[in-house]
Every structure is written in C-alpha cells, then in structure tokens.
C-alpha cells in the first residue's frame, strides 16, 4: 500500500463525484478512521447525475457519513468547465466556513498530474507549479490531494476489490476535449518506465521553478523598475504571482505578459485595462498591480439629511459638530457623498476646474480615483473634493478623510 497520511485530529470535507478516484479516497478515509463529510454537486447535465448522487448518499449512510449536496439550475443545458469549477469550489468554500472543516480533500491522482503537466507544456503556460500541487489554497481553503502517487487504474482496482460503488462519467471519453485527448491517446498508453520518466521530469521542472520563485523580491514585486530589471522568465513568473494573489486558478498567457511589458515601458503614468475575465492591470506611475475588477470599480453613494457621523468602507465623515473646511453649510442639506465621476468639476477661485485635471496635478493613484468621494449639495453643485496627500494621516480632530 502506498503512503496515505492525513491528520486524524482534523475534520475534512471530501469533494466527491462518485467516480472511482473520489470513492477510493472515501474508502481510504473510512479505513483510516478519519473525521470527514462529503460534498457533491449535481449539475443536472447528464441523465445519470441523480442516480450518482443517490448512490453516494446511500453508500455514505452505511458509515453514517453526512453528504452535502448542491443542485444547480435544472433549466441549464450547458455549463462550461470553468463555470462548473467556480460553482463547486464556491460551494465547498461555503461549507468549510459554515461547518468549520480544516481542509478540502480532492481526489486528483497521478494520471491527472501528468495530464496537467502535458497540457501546461502544450499551452506554453507559465504556472507557479507544474502538474498538480499536493497542497494549495483555493478561495481561502487549504486543498489537499492525497492520491497523487496513485494511478487511475490502481484506484479503480481498489474500489472493485473492496466492493466500493462508483460510476464512470461518459463525457470523459470525448476526445474533442484536450484533457481527454491527452488522457486516452497519451497517458493511458504510457508504460511504467515512461510514467516514471515523466514524473521525474515534472519534479525537476518544479525544482527549477522553485529557484526562480525564491529569487524574486516580493517586497518589490509592484515596482515598475524592479520588474523591468528581471529577465523574461522571472518577469513572467512575477506577474503570475500577482495574478495568484487574486485568483489561484488564473495564469497569464505570453500575450498577456507582452501587453503588460508594453504598459510598463510606456511613458503614460496611469494605465488601466482588462487582462482576462475579471482581472485588470493597473499602472500608477512607478507602481503596478493586478486587481479584481469586481472590487476595484466599485460605485457608492450616501445621502445625509442633516449633519451627522458616517463611517463607510470608502471614507469617514463627522459633521455632527462641525463641517469646517469642507464648504458645507446648513442650507446645502440634504447632501450627497458619492464616488467621483470624471465629468465632475468644481469651482476654485472663480474657475470651473475639471476633476480629472486635479487628479493629474495631485498625482492621485488610479486605484483611488474610482473610489474618491465628492460632496454635492441639494442643488447638484460639487461643494468639496478632498485633496490627495500621499502620506496623510488623520487625527482625532479630522472631520473627513478618505480610506485607501
């Protein structure tokens, strides 16, 4: 028997599909007397899915193991692989939080590990780990894969010899899907020696990768000049590291990396564009970042009928005693505080000055511009825009300040 070690003092959530891999892992957990529960997602994309969920529930009930089930919208006829992944990992993350599981167990095995590596090479990916990592983090969860030393055939044999039920997903035989093509036309045809050679090759690739990643200075990873001083390979891995801070599943293509390099070289001080999906690139003078647009481009507005105190995620305001220095009088109420629009302007010494001009003069970071507040009176006049000060620190007497 190959080594199988988990912590018996921890409580695990097993991601289960009722396939032979996850059911073999179920068997190991029962045999080892581990504390665990199961989670399965029914996408309702195949006619067999209902019976597979029932099969898992029935078998788990023999051992008094609880099964958490998520049903997707039955009206959906198609879900992409990426969408399915998002659905199930969001479900798993919610369960870990609600029931205080220590980690998620996933039944990826050696064939998956090899397939992933071959696909990474096929696509010229620049991952932070070649193949599948034994331990990683997804959506804040610790994800453990204890079966990476077992082949798919070994796990199927374990199920059969121990009378563990399982089902085969027929969609796995569709070779129009790249992973299935590698699985059936390459990995399944490898002999023992060829498998060992590939496993050793993956190990060596990860050792080289560790050297590259350990050479990066993560205190400088947002600095334009530092990034441009890196060689091409280190540059790409540094950007992918920034990507992984937002979404562990995302990697940048060579085209993405090339676009970012052009932006870094550009003389434009502020640049903002979509990289892929919900990921956006931001350049603010000598600072760069990769951000989640869902949190970056947030809009807000607050209406105050009278002077009061207000503490928001974007600014702090206390006009309950005084609005001194903020150009707000009692006749201006109700006032509106919202994030600035680049079409806004304010009267300064008799001149109508566009907000975008002020932002340029103040050298305000791009990530702050979209959240910067303005105060508007009941007649629609912009009364006040807080000035950007890079090293500003509020004190107990500050009646209005922006949170960055």
Report on the structure:
This protein is α+β, with helices and mostly antiparallel strands and 404 residues long. It has 3 domains: 11-108 and 131-169, Rossmann fold; 220-295, Uridine Diphospho-n-acetylenolpyruvylglucosamine Reductase, domain 3 (2-Layer Sandwich), CATH 3.30.465; 301-402, no CATH class. Helices cover 37% and strands 20% of the residues. The chain has helices at 20-31, 49-62, 81-99, 110-122, 152-161, 178-185, 192-215, 224-229, 232-246, 254-265, 293-296, 355-362, 366-369, and strands at 11-15, 35-42, 67-71, 103-105, 135-138, 141-144, 270-276, 279-284, 287-292, 301-304, 309-311, 315-318, 335-339, 345-348, 351-354, 373-376, 382-384, 400-402. The chain has a 6-stranded mixed sheet, sandwiched between helices. Strands 10-13-16-17 form a 4-stranded antiparallel sheet, with no helix packed on it. Strands 7-8-9 form a 3-stranded antiparallel sheet. β16 (373-376) and β17 form a beta hairpin. The mean pLDDT is 89.
Question: Quick gist of this model?
Answer:
With 404 residues, this protein is an alpha+beta fold. The protein has helices at 20-31, 49-62, 81-99, 110-122, 152-161, 178-185, 192-215, 224-229, 232-246, 254-265, 293-296, 355-362, 366-369, and strands spanning 11-15, 35-42, 67-71, 103-105, 135-138, 141-144, 270-276, 279-284, 287-292, 301-304, 309-311, 315-318, 335-339, 345-348, 351-354, 373-376, 382-384, 400-402.
């Amino acid at each position: 028997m190959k080594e199988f070690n988990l912590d018996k003092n921890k409580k695990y959530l097993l991601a289960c599909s009722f396939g032979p891999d996850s059911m073999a892992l179920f068997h190991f957990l029962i045999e080892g007397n581990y504390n665990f529960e199961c989670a399965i997602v029914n996408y309702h994309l195949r006619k067999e899915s209902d019976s597979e969920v029932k099969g898992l529930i029935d078998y788990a009930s023999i051992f008094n193991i609880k099964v958490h089930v998520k049903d997707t919208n039955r009206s959906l006829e198609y879900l992409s692989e990426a969408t399915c992944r998002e659905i199930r990992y969001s479900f798993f993350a919610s369960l870990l939080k609600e029931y205080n599981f220590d980690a998620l167990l996933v039944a990826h095995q050696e064939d998956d590990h090899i397939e992933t590596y071959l696909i990474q090479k096929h696509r010229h990916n620049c991952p932070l780990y070649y193949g599948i990592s034994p331990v990683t983090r997804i959506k804040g969860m610790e994800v453990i894969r204890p079966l990476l030393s077992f082949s798919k055939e070994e796990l199927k044999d374990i199920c059969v010899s121990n009378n563990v039920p399982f089902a085969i997903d027929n969609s796995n035989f569709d070779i129009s899907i790249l992973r299935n093509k590698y699985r059936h036309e390459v990995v399944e045809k490898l002999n023992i020696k060829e498998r060992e050679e590939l496993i050793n090759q993956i190990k060596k690739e990860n050792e080289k990768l560790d050297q590259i990643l350990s050479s990066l200075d993560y205190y400088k990873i947002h600095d334009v000049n530092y990034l441009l001083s890196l060689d091409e390979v280190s540059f790409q891995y540094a950007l992918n590291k920034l990507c992984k801070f937002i979404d562990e599943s995302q990697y940048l293509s060579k085209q993405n990396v090339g676009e970012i390099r052009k932006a870094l070289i550009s003389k434009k001080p502020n640049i903002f564009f979509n990289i892929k999906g919900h990921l956006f690139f931001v350049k603010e003078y000598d600072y760069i970042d990769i951000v989640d647009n869902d949190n970056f481009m947030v809009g807000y507005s607050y209406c105050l009928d009278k002077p009061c105190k207000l503490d928001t995620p974007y600014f702090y305001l206390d006009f309950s005693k005084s609005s001194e220095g903020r150009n707000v009088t009692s006749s201006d109420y109700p006032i509106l505080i919202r994030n600035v629009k680049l079409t806004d302007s304010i009267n300064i010494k008799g001149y109508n000055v566009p907000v975008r001009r002020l932002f340029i003069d103040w050298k305000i970071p791009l990530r702050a511009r979209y959240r910067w507040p303005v105060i508007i009176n009941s007649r629609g006049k912009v009364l006040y825009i807080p000035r950007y000060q890079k090293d500003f620190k509020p004190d107990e007497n500050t009646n209005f300040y922006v949170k960055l």
